[in-house]
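Holo prediction — tryptophan.
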Amino acid sequence: MTDENIGQVQNKKIILSGIQPTGTITLGNYLGAVRNWQIMQEDFNSIFFIADLHALTVKREPAELRQCANSFFAQLLACGINPEKAILYFQSHVHQHAELQWILNCYTYVGEASRMTQFKDKSAKHSDNINMGLMDYPVLMAADVLLFQSDLVPVGIDQKQHLELTRDLAIRFNNRYGDTFKVPEPYIPTMGAKVCSLQDPTAKMSKSDPDENSRVSIIDDEATIVRRFKRAVTDSGNEICVREDKPGVSNLINIYAAIENKSAQDVEREFAGQGYGTFKIAVGEAVAAKFAPIREEYLRYLADKSYIAEVAKAGAEKAAYLAERTLRKVKKKVGLISF
Ligand code: TRP
């Protein structure tokens, strides 16, 4: 293998991001992450993976996890992640992730890991299963990023603290052993960065929210999408405008604007004088129209198990080739024997 034949271009920056396979890719994941990945793969050496090892930190049925991870792979392909342009794979297929995690563990303080906001939140939420993996989650994420000498890491705002830890670990390691890791920058997209729940517009739209009406997915059918938007919580009054005291309507305006590539002001103008009911249907129909071809592609990929296997295998081989380069260096630096 060479850098060229795995599609890595010398002077392009490296971006890397992962997504946990839970539920399905939501409108929030799409606008906040996956759509940007698809755009960024044109200009960057791009590495995207299904974070299936991270998914083990909460209890899952094996068959359900397997089905979900496979479905996520098909969903990313359907969203236009192109295996000719980006490296796409399952995290668990590249053993270097877990191996680097172990080494980084030995440079991570229990204090800093236990201070992570997400660890505290998840410990409260899964109080019957506060396992080591839950605390170690951000160190695995650091390994994901540092293995590939990533320049930029597109993440949601909720992952920013994990990126800070990643940077701290890279700097700590580099200070002790000399330049080894690229210190990555978080990349938090401003456009469509935060899509809120359709039922509680003060909370983020989440793929694990128990209330299905709180979200729509890229693979939902048109009727479901329109129905969920019809049921979306709005605010008092009847004006269609972005305002702090109108989180529900503001969320819908932002969604419509992001889907239609318009500004919020354009949307306000377009719907001036119309009622919430009409507006909610218009947003639902716009989202459904955007997702219809994605859903179709998804079903096509999902039916083609051997294609997914082939792409995933090739992706893992490319990722392992790049990851091994860093891992070899790290092992040598910390004093492990190599022949
Ligand atoms: N923890 C991330 C999330 O839940 C997913 C993830 C895992 C990730 N490893 C990563 C994101 C590395 C960016 C880089 O959103």
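READOUT: The radius of gyration is 21 Å.
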